Amino acid sequence: MKIFVCIKQVPGISEVKIDPKTNTLVREGVPSIINPHDKHAIELGISLKEKHRGEIIVLSMGPPQAEEALREALAMGADKAYLLTDRAFAGADTLATSHTLALAIKKILNENEKEKDNYIVICGTQAIDGDTAQVGPELAEELGIPQITYVLNFELKDQNRIIVERAFRPEEVVVIESQLPALISVLKEINKPRYPNIQRIVDAYEKKEVIHLNAEDLNAKKSEIGLNGSKTEVFKIFMPKRKGDRIILKGNPEQIAKELVKNLQDDKIL
After folding, report:
1. Is the pTM value of this prediction over 0.70?
2. Which one of 18, 33, 95, 104 has the largest count of C-beta atoms within 10 Å of its C-beta?
3. In sequence order, what are the residues at sequence separation of 6 or more whose Cβ sits closer than 8 angstroms to the Cβ of residue 57?
4. Backbone φ and ψ of 92, nearest 5°
5. Which of 54, 51, 71 is nearest to 7 (CA)?
6. Do residues 140 and 146 make contact, with C-beta atoms less than 8 angstroms apart?
7. Is-contact 89 64, C-beta < 8 A?
8. Structural domain for 176, as ranges
9. Which residues lie below 8 Å from residue 71, measured CB to CB, with a gap of 6+?
10. For the domain that residue 199 is a member of, what is the CATH number?
11. What's 5-57 look like in SS3?
12. Tell me, what's the pLDDT at 99?
């Protein structure tokens, strides 16, 4: 079984900088990390391999510097890593991104006909820089496979059947069963990502390879990737300004409660 895990490299800071001319994130000089939700996807992939065997293939689309995120995934326990990098991929929205990832997955699957239908795709629920939570579902549509989002718990049965618990509403969980192939996107509550040991980190750089794929390798049409293949356009993006000063209430609980209610009434919230 092939276990595909899609990850994204994101800015490793709490407050991002925006280029006012292009309405895109400023990445130069900004430390980057694996999207935190995606680490839980990697961990699930590793746990799945440990229990049922299989091959973990991690994919990411981005500039050459995104190779560092893939190296970290290899150090955690992934078997192979693919970086989809090409100037033609730049400016992609979620639709163009999911299309490009689907092309790569199909290419890898076509290399082994026996495992063409025996695979699972695991994604983090959303990226902390965009927060759209759209790439996973759109990727499933591109691949033509079932999708289950907001997964809290996961179990593989009979090598081709999965049973998951999905967060539905506050305090409500639904149990869903599906045949493979399928795509799931996981919540952070599903597990605790492991830290790679020194030997795995060394092996990730010295013994393992990050395979680069460009638009030509994927036989991608220029009209369907990058900015050309994007159906949405960011009109404006900005960091909201803080309104007013914060108020620190002091005293015993009763005094604080009375002062809080008075402030809420003054602001016409109550």
Report:
1. yes
2. 104
3. 2, 3, 4, 5, 78, 79, 80, 81, 82, 108
4. -70, 140
5. 71
6. yes
7. no
8. 2-224
9. 81, 204, 205, 208, 210
10. 3.40.50.620
11. EECCEEECCCCCCEECCCCEECCCCCCEEECHHHHHHHHHHHHHHHHHCCEEE
12. 96
